[in-house]
Amino acid sequence: MGMIKRTVILFICLTMLFALFPNHVCAETVAVEDILSAMPAKEIIAVECSTGKVLFEKNSAETTEISHLAKLMLILLTAEKLENNEISLNDTVTVSANANAMPAPQIWLDKGEKISVEELLKAVTVGNANDAAVALAEHIYGTTDAAVTEMNRKAKILDMNSTTYADVCGISEQTLSNAADTAILANELVKHDILTPYFTTWIDNVRGGKAELVSLNRLVRTYKGITGMKACSSKAAGECTVATAHRRDMDIAVVIIGCDKRENCDDMAKKLLDMCFDSYSLYSPEPEKYMLEDIKVTGGEEKKVAVTFGDLSPAVIPKGASASFDIRFERSEELTAPVKKGQHCGKLTCYYGDELMYSADLVAAKGVKQISFKYCFEQLLYYFLKF
Q1: Taking the domains of the chain in order of start, what are their residue ranges?
Q2: What Cα–Cα distance (Å) separates residue 164 from each residue in 64, 134, 177?
Q3: Is the pTM of this model over 0.90?
Q4: What angle do CA 86, 107, 245 make, to 5 degrees?
Q5: CA-only gyration radius of the chain, Å
Q6: How far apart are CA 75 and CA 186, in angstroms?
Q7: How far apart are CA 383 and CA 387, in angstroms?
Q8: Residue 91 phi, psi dihedral angles, 5° rounding
């Protein structure tokens, strides 16, 4: 771990711990590991969503029960179905006996009752309703077993390798995941703007006002830039929160599993979000004009080739560090044909002290064929006819 990252992590940890335990912390004698272990949660992770960069974590890879956080995968699949026009928010769902039999939390759906997909989506995102989750899953996939199969398939696609879904609600003790996998899921969910109004709803009702929905995610009322996502609790999983927020082109996801109290869970989620936004920023260099000048090609059907940076995706860096970056650039003065599209031609690197903070490859924007007898003959013929 680089010095910059250690410094930022220490700052975040100390700030959070001072806030949570102001009378019990001595910054000069407490190691980072001790600070992390003192936080009242089994698993914690904070991730920048667009890059997947882990900014802060504690035991985030330990497989555990996740309670209603399992419903986030059902919500993701529902969003994809809506965006692909395979289902509609206005679709009418007939409630099955299976959905009616689900335990609390619920919206008290009756067998045979008619309800819209939108109301079910509200009940799952805002209220964690088990009966609504089952009714929604059955509408989309026919059975909850088929829904579970699809949830597990999607988990594998997203490389959520520690996640196993045994039910759509998170009731089963065989439904397991961890904070790291849940952060991957949160990163995927923030891409779907259709979900934001539901994730950020504090209070609503369904079934013509018969069932009130109140979000356990208290940050939706108070946190600037909040975009979601879910809070819940159970005896096995403890207090859990997935909180996402957007500020200054950066999306942060915080996952907390197994916290001791709801108040601590909310407080830690808020402070983690604050520290991430206060301590980090996204960085992408602006290439100088000379960096993108064509490169000479010898032995080719063209005398030069255009170049581009293959990937200038943003990277997460400590806030303000870019002003002190040592930017280094190197590139080939000449290439020999044949040149392949995407061929490496140079490299841009950004260092903060001795630590590499950013790198991007310069590549050929197109291919250049090696000169041939046929090409030479065609060129001679062209010039002969021209004159």
Answers
A1: 39-281, 289-373
A2: 10, 18, 6
A3: no
A4: 65
A5: 27
A6: 11
A7: 6
A8: -55, 140
Residue 37 has which token pair?
């272990």
**What would the CATH number be for the domain defined by 289-373?**
2.60.410.10
Please list, in sequence order, all residues whose beta carbon lies within 8 angstroms of the beta carbon of residue 19, skipping any fewer than 6 positions away: 267, 271
Handedness of CA 173, 179, 181, 185 (dihedral sign): positive
DSSP secondary structure letters along 264-275: HHHHHHHHHHHH
One-letter amino acid of 23: N
Query: Which structure tokens are listed for 51?
Result: 């890059």
Considering the segment(s) 39-281 as one domain, its CATH architecture is 3-Layer(aba) Sandwich (3.40)
Cα distance between residue 213 and residue 124, in whole Å: 9
Output the six-digit token pair for 5. 């990252």
Residue 113: pLDDT band (50, 70, 90) is: very high
Question: Angle, nearest 10°, between helix axes 262-279 and 3-20?
Answer: 140
Beta-bridged to residue 339, according to DSSP, are 368
Mean pLDDT along residues 31-47: 77
Half-sphere exposure of 4 (CA within 13 A, CB side): 19
**Residue 345: helix, strand or coil by DSSP?**
strand
Residue with tokens 């010039």: 383
Largest Cα span, the chain = 92
> Is the distance from CB of 115 to CB of 96 less than 8 angstroms?
no
pLDDT digits (tens, 9 = 90+) for 197-217: 999 999 999 999 999 999 999
